[in-house]
UniProtKB/TrEMBL annotation:
SUPFAM superfamilies (alphabetical): Pseudouridine synthase
UniProt keyword Cell wall biogenesis/degradation, yes or no: no
KW Isomerase (keyword) present: yes
Gene3D superfamilies: Pseudouridine synthase (3.30.2350.10)
GO molecular function: RNA binding; tRNA pseudouridine(55) synthase activity
Function: Responsible for synthesis of pseudouridine from uracil-55 in the psi GC loop of transfer RNAs.
Pfam families: TruB_C_2 (PF16198), TruB_N (PF01509)
EC number assigned by the record: 5.4.99.25
GO biological process: mRNA pseudouridine synthesis; tRNA pseudouridine synthesis
Protein name: tRNA pseudouridine synthase B
This protein's UniProt keywords: Isomerase, tRNA processing
Domain Pseudouridine synthase II N-terminal span(s) in chain numbering: 23-178
Gene it is expressed from: truB
Organism: Jeotgalibacillus proteolyticus
Amino acid sequence: MNGILPIWKEPGLTSHDCVFKVRKLLKMKKVGHTGTLDPDVDGVLPICLGRATKIAEYITDSGKSYRAEVTIGSSTATEDASGEVISRKKVEENFTYEDLTTVLSSFEGQIKQTPPMYSAVKVNGKRLYEYARQGIMVERPTRTVQINRIRLVENTLLKKQQELSFSIDVDCGKGTYIRTLAVMIGERLGYPAHMSKLTRTSSAAFTKENCVTLSQLAELAEDSNALHKYLRPLEEGISQLKNLTISDTVASKVKNGAVLSMPEDWTADYGEPVVLTYQQKALAIYHLHPSKEGLIKPVKVLWVD
């Protein structure tokens, strides 16, 4: 079985839990996920099966969309609702829809983020959350991330006791921490804040409409025809990459992983991956040769006879 199985991950499971369950249900070893979701988070988690595991990194690196609830008035050690409250400030302003929209729009484009201590980012070969659990503070690398779009969800403003919460829809690039974004929004408004809920609404080309739950998968596992309704072709996972259609003569070389002369219609920059396609099937991913001008070389050969 080869392809992408978009799973709707439910709260309480890690991404690795989902991979383990899929392996067990489908009785296959070659299974991999495409970007970690925290246990408290639900949403779209594409699972790669068989040959599609070769393209998992491209789905991981692609754009994601989220719906998050931001709560201002308190911050936590983990920047989400699971952590210990470390700061409080009563929200006294009556923020309007326009006030919040103006602040949110200021985050669109490239922004700098410092990953939370409770995260999987490595510093000196060790995960940040490992340091955090030992009570050790280390210097964290600030990095640039891309926010393509951020919008306030209408009719979600809720004042509760000393806090204010509202929901946002975010389209973002690789490496964006939505909980850190929630904290940054709070800072811009003058309050401690945290992310109180999070759902991943899309990953690469996959949305909730494409997804199957693990409980549904358990019922479908013995029915290959029903299961294939949810199994998406490998090509959908790399549809965000540049694509070049090739002839049958070139296709035979590509299947064997040959280094090729750069096609006349090649438009990719150095290091940028391009999918070489023949008869609507992705055969391989190529990029410019790192040392030989005018040539392209394979990064991944996807075709298996």
